[in-house]
């Protein structure tokens, strides 16, 4: 598919344009410069034109250090694989020296370049339009990403370029995500506090320098989706911004990042909660775990940096004790001891993901469930309420992902929580549902499938 990359300085409106053309709020937009760090892909369209659009970090020659070097590399990779480049400048600011320097780099690529003079609405945008010729490109389009002005001119230019390229066979990179609704794709969210190694883990899983990494906390800001396959299964792995304690989330950008991460949890099949294996789970980790369980998603604890742990028996026992004490609603949460940096335990992590996904989709027949229920309630009947027996009459599975069961009885409002937990625990043990966030709904009535 035809690929178009958006390049330009920070805060010139690339992510706003990306969201407009992709048709969803996939990129976080904020007035603060430098929000985008990684390459972000989306399937975009204008009228009858369909193409892959790549959002990139802002170009800035003042950036220094390893993280900034990684950000520049991500932009270079995107430019290299694109068929066409849209160079976005701020019409109100005019052409800056860093943009003139970058334009010389783009000319050397021998790829078609469109200069999009964003924020050109009104008299303040005239400066950018008059100075844009100095960049050395023929195609210049006045534009407003926020209001959609200039879309018809952009359409005409893209149509000409895409039609020219249709004669040349191109292959879609297998490690990019184009957000198609496919129920066979397993969506895995990599969740955790800042600096637990989420981006490094994904890079080593897919064997590609796909995400910006570094020792500095908070590098990832957007949720980045990466398509990948393992054992003939299709995965969409989502890297997320680190979740800090709520009291520390005090600016608009970080609130957007948190919202983006929570949305990832909601739309994932499985969430891998990455923690530092040496320090174990802290209060924030357990809060995140409860959110994942509350959404009914499969949960795996990725005990990362296992290669740095000295006393492994003690560290392992500490994690299991914390889970047993603070996350008791799920029995035997899966824990994978691993090193994303060294590539240790990654096959085990993915095999565990496949196992959990398979069991999240399990369907148990009504007959089998009720044959199981009869001896359970005979040997452990529900407690009496005001001297009356609370008859449990019937059970059926009503949903999957997670497995959800409806239990019909004479007085559901008077069934103690302890007995409900007993039923859940028995279901987990007897139907291999351990480690899953199963649900039990209590309903009043007799067997609904038997006529009175």
Set down the secondary structure blueprint.
Blueprint: E1 3-8, H1 14-22, E2 40-46, E3 49-55, H2 66-81, E4 84-90, H3 97-108, E5 113-118, H4 126-131, E6 139-142, H5 151-165, E7 186-192, H6 198-206, E8 224-230, E9 233-239, H7 252-266, E10 270-276, H8 283-294, E11 298-304, H9 312-326, E12 334-337, H10 346-360, H11 366-379, E13 392-399, E14 404-409, H12 417-430, E15 439-444
Structure description:
- With 452 residues, the chain is α/β, with parallel strands linked by helices.
- It has 12 helices and 15 strands.
- The strands form 3 sheets. It has a 6-stranded mixed sheet, sandwiched between helices. Strands 8-9-7-10-11-12 form a 6-stranded mixed sheet, sandwiched between helices. A 3-stranded mixed sheet has the order 13-14-15.
- Residues 26-36, 167-182 and 213-221 have low confidence and may be disordered.
């Amino acid at each position: 598919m035809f690929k178009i990359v958006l390049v330009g300085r920070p805060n010139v409106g690339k992510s706003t344009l990306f969201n407009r053309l992709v048709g969803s709020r996939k990129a976080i937009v904020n007035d603060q410069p430098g929000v985008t760090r990684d390459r972000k892909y989306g399937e975009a369209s204008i009228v009858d034109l369909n193409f892959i659009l790549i959002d990139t970090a802002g170009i800035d020659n003042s950036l220094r250090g390893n993280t900034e070097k990684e950000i520049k590399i991500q932009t270079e990779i995107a430019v290299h694989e694109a068929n066409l480049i849209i160079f976005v400048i701020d019409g109100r600011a005019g052409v800056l020296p860093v943009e003139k320097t970058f334009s010389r780099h783009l000319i050397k690529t021998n790829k078609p370049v469109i200069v999009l003079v964003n924020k050109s609405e009104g008299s303040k945008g005239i400066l950018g339009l008059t100075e844009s010729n100095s960049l050395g490109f023929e195609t210049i389009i006045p534009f407003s990403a926020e209001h959609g002005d200039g879309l018809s001119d952009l359409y005409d230019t893209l149509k000409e370029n895409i039609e020219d390229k249709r004669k040349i066979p191109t292959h879609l990179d297998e490690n990019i995500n184009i957000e198609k609704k496919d129920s066979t794709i397993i969506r895995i969210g990599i969740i955790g506090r800042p600096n637990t190694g989420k981006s490094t883990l994904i890079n080593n899983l897919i064997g590609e320098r796909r995400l910006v990494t570094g020792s500095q906390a908070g590098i990832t800001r957007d949720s980045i989706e990466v398509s990948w396959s393992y054992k003939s299964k299709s995965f969409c792995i989502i890297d997320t911004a680190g979740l800090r304690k709520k009291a520390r989330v005090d600016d608009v950008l970080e609130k957007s990042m948190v919202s983006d991460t929570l949305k990832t949890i909601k739309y994932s099949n499985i969430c891998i909660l990455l923690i530092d294996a040496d320090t174990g789970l802290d209060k924030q980790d357990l809060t995140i775990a409860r959110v994942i369980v509350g959404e009914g998603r499969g949960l795996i604890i990725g005990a990362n940096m296992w290669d740095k742990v000295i006393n492994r028996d003690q560290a392992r026992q500490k994690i299991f004790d914390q889970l047993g004490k603070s996350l008791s609603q799920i029995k035997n949460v899966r824990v994978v001891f691993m090193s994303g940096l060294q590539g240790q335990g990654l096959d085990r992590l993915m095999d565990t993901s496949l196992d959990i996904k398979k069991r999240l989709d399990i369907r148990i027949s009504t007959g089998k469930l009720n044959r199981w229920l009869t001896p359970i309630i005979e040997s452990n009947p529900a407690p009496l309420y005001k001297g009356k027996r609370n008859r449990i009459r019937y059970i059926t599975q009503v949903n999957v992902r997670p497995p959800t069961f409806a239990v019909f009885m004479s007085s559901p409002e008077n069934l103690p929580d302890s007995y409900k937990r007993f039923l859940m625990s028995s279901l987990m043990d007897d139907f291999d549902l351990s480690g899953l966030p199963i649900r039990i709904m209590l309903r009043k009535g007799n067997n609904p499938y038997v006529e009175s």
